[in-house]
């Protein structure tokens, strides 16, 4: 019996890395019967036959799990936004942040293509950077010219399992190719008519980048809050989570309740008004969600 980690899943086979060797494995039939799917990132035990073909016997408990992309045991999510083409959007960034926070995964924000901005636009972006850093997030700005700031990003990957998230066309594959030129990941041509990138990544695989593992995953723009319960939403905003015990009412949703510490912080400027507006919009979105039976 050997132990390892699934680094790729493709066409019903699982590729398990163990002691610097990768073995092609199949899952046990009992997994299918019990509706258990081994995921990329899973730590597993497996048996090998005489041809070094493996059979996964057991899956270790997961520390985290994503549905889209299907991957387990992630340490951090690197959310890639672009400054231009597509234009930077705090609404979209906050959607990603909420979805990552809901999974108890650490988010890191990387904003690409800053070289496409005029000086006054750079100043505005740097204010957003300051806002998010004050919340406690790590925020890195990089240009498409791949200058010295790329060196600032490299240490983020060391000894971590990272997932790269972000809408299509923001430069996720380009960034990974710059960090590890041997990858030669397919980069999507921006579709001029749609204004967004074409999907280029078709399976989930953990690839080595700067002494860490990274899942290169499809860019996606459908970011639904299907799995987030209304009362859990305030916990996905760190600046609200920090004030949870300061509101008068327990379970305060920070909308209409009196003596709400979050609303007071918005009024005093300690919580940015745009983050609060997004929160209110997300509350309404979850409230209008059709019930599932």
TrEMBL record:
Residues 72-221 form the EngC GTPase domain. Zn(2+) binds at residues 247, 252, 254, 260. InterPro entries: G_CP_dom, NA-bd_OB-fold, P-loop_NTPase, Ribosome_biogen_GTPase_RsgA, RsgA_GTPase_dom, RsgA_N. It is an enzyme of class 3 (hydrolase). Binds 1 zinc ion per subunit. Residues 63-223 form the CP-type G domain. GO terms for cellular component: cytoplasm. GO terms for biological process: ribosomal small subunit biogenesis. Its cofactor is Zn(2+). GO terms for molecular function: GTP binding; GTPase activity; metal ion binding; rRNA binding. Its EC number is 3.6.1.-. Gene3D superfamilies: Nucleic acid-binding proteins, P-loop containing nucleotide triphosphate hydrolases, Probable gtpase engc, domain 3. It is found in: Cytoplasm. Its main location: cytoplasm. Keywords: Cytoplasm, GTP-binding, Hydrolase, Metal-binding, Nucleotide-binding, Ribosome biogenesis, RNA-binding, rRNA-binding, Zinc. GTP binds at residues 112-115, 166-174. PANTHER family: SMALL RIBOSOMAL SUBUNIT BIOGENESIS GTPASE RSGA, SMALL RIBOSOMAL SUBUNIT BIOGENESIS GTPASE RSGA 1, MITOCHONDRIAL-RELATED. Monomer. Associates with 30S ribosomal subunit, binds 16S rRNA. Belongs to the TRAFAC class YlqF/YawG GTPase family. RsgA subfamily. One of several proteins that assist in the late maturation steps of the functional core of the 30S ribosomal subunit. Helps release RbfA from mature subunits. May play a role in the assembly of ribosomal proteins into the subunit. Circularly permuted GTPase that catalyzes slow GTP hydrolysis, GTPase activity is stimulated by the 30S ribosomal subunit. NCBIfam families: ribosome small subunit-dependent GTPase A. This is Small ribosomal subunit biogenesis GTPase RsgA. It comes from Ornithinibacillus halophilus. The lineage of its organism: Bacteria, Bacillati, Bacillota, Bacilli, Bacillales.
């Amino acid at each position: 019996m050997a132990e390892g980690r699934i680094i790729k899943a493709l066409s019903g086979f699982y590729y398990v890395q163990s002691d610097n060797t990768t073995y092609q494995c199949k899952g046990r039939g009992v997994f299918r019967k019990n509706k258990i799917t081994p995921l990329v990132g899973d730590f597993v035990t497996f048996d090998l036959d005489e041809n070094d073909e493996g059979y996964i016997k057991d899956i270790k408990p997961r520390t985290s799990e994503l549905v889209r992309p299907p991957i387990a045991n992630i340490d951090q999510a690197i959310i890639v936004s672009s400054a231009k083409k597509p234009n930077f959007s705090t609404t979209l960034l906050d959607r990603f942040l909420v979805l990552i926070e809901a999974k108890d995964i650490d988010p890191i924000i990387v904003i690409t293509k800053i070289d496409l901005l005029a000086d006054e636009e750079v100043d505005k972006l740097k204010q957003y950077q300051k806002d998010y850093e004050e919340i406690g997030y790590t925020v890195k700005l990089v240009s498409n010219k791949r200058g010295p700031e790329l060196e600032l990003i490299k240490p983020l990957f060391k000894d971590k399992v990272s997932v790269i998230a972000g809408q299509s066309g923001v430069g996720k594959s380009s960034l990974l190719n710059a960090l590890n030129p041997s990858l030669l990941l397919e980069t999507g041509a921006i579709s001029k008519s749609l204004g967004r990138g074409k999907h280029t990544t078709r399976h989930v695989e953990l690839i080595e980048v700067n002494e860490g593992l990274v899942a290169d995953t499809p860019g996606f723009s459908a970011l639904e809050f299907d799995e987030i319960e209304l009362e859990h939403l305030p916990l996905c905003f760190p600046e609200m989570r920090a004030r949870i015990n300061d509101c008068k009412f327990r379970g305060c949703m920070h909308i209409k309740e009196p003596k709400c510490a979050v609303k007071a912080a918005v009024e005093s400027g300690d919580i940015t008004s745009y983050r609060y507006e997004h929160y209110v919009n997300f509350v309404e979105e979850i409230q209008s969600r059709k019930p599932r039976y």
